[in-house]
Amino acid sequence: xxxxxxxxxILPSSSxxxxxxxxxxxxxxxxxxxxxxxxxIRAGVSELRGKDEKANTRFDxxxxxxxxxxxxxxxxxxxxxxxxxxxxxxQRFMQHVIxxxxxxxxxxxSSAIAKTLLATxxxxxxx
Length: 127
What we know:
By secondary structure, the chain is α+β, with helices and mostly antiparallel strands. The protein has three helices and four strands, in the order βββααβα. Helix 1 crosses helix 2 (83-96).
């Protein structure tokens, strides 16, 4: 899990994302028929948990199926600490990010998640 050692830049400031986690990396990989998603923070590495609190609950990526939706929610819930935030952004995040992740493996930083959510927000005003 070499991706867990990277430092991420400061998240953009936004009143729509209070309390988001900073300097967090989410790493997903597949080993034969099993997929794993890990959360990497300064304090260490742990498995990402789904809505039902089980590690790697039916997570999938590279598509838009139920497992991808579960992963989208789990990442956003961990990222924000809020179930309402995760539910509100789950479908858009799955469409723009989770469904496009490489099947073999990937890494997402908290700053990349924040930038994606800000860039794809339906309330985003044109510059």
